Amino acid sequence: MDSEKTKKVAELAEKELKEEEEQKQIDLIKKAIKQTLEAIKNKEKERTKLNKEIKTLKQDIDNIRAGRLDLIAERQEKDDEAKRTSIIEIVKVKEIHHHHYDHWYEPYRIIWNEPYNPYPLTTYCNTTTADISGDYTYYNAKGLNTDLSFATVNCSIAKDAYAGTYQLDSGDCVTLT
After folding, report:
1. Residues sharing a CB contact under 8 Å with residue 138, sequence separation 6 or more, in sequence order
2. Which helix (H) or strand (E) holds 51?
């Protein structure tokens, strides 16, 4: 009788060890699935944030194309995230009151956000030209500024300067019309 009891106890102990080992494996899989789901959730949050940033940057380009620096300034004034996302910050310098209202000639200050550096030469596909040229005035708090910390432009210039073919750092060329 003792041998049968011993056999049953051994079988029971073996069964418990097997169940315990299976439970460890199940727990390991469940932990891996939970961490994978958390990683997916975090990546989806990052994607949502990146999609919002891309949308803001595309709106900036569309507004420049339309010569609507005022819309960029308004968006940046209302949304701090849009202000941080944009490559440039647009600030209306002053209100111009003419007997006829024409927002095209109101001056806007363009401030480059870090870490972007517009000052070196920009390569346009098959040509190289100075990055900022034309009839712009560059100021800082002390007056005329030679380091181009920000530029003053109007909507008309922005609209006219939009079109062109741009060579990106990756070597890709993008044509905007």
Report:
1. 144, 145, 146, 148, 149, 150, 151, 152
2. helix 2-65
Do 127 and 84 meet the contact criterion of CB atoms below 8 Å apart?
no
Cα gap 140→22, rounded to integer Å: 70
- Pair of tokens at residue 45: 């949050």
How crowded is the C-beta side of 88, counted as CA atoms within 13 Å? Answer: 23
Among 13-17, 76-80, 88-92, 103-107, which stretch is predicted with the lowest mean pLDDT?
A: 103-107
- Please enumerate in sequence order all residues whose Cβ is within 8 A of that of 155, keeping only pairs 6 or more positions apart, or say none: 67, 68, 69, 70, 103, 104, 105, 106, 108
- Rounded to two decimals, what is the model's pTM? 0.66
Domain count, the chain: 1
> Using CA atoms, how far apart are residues 67 and 62, in angstroms rounded to an integer?
9
Give the CA angle between residues 135, 136, 137 to the nearest 5°. Answer: 130
- pLDDT value of position 148: 47
Q: Which domain holds residue 25?
A: 2-176
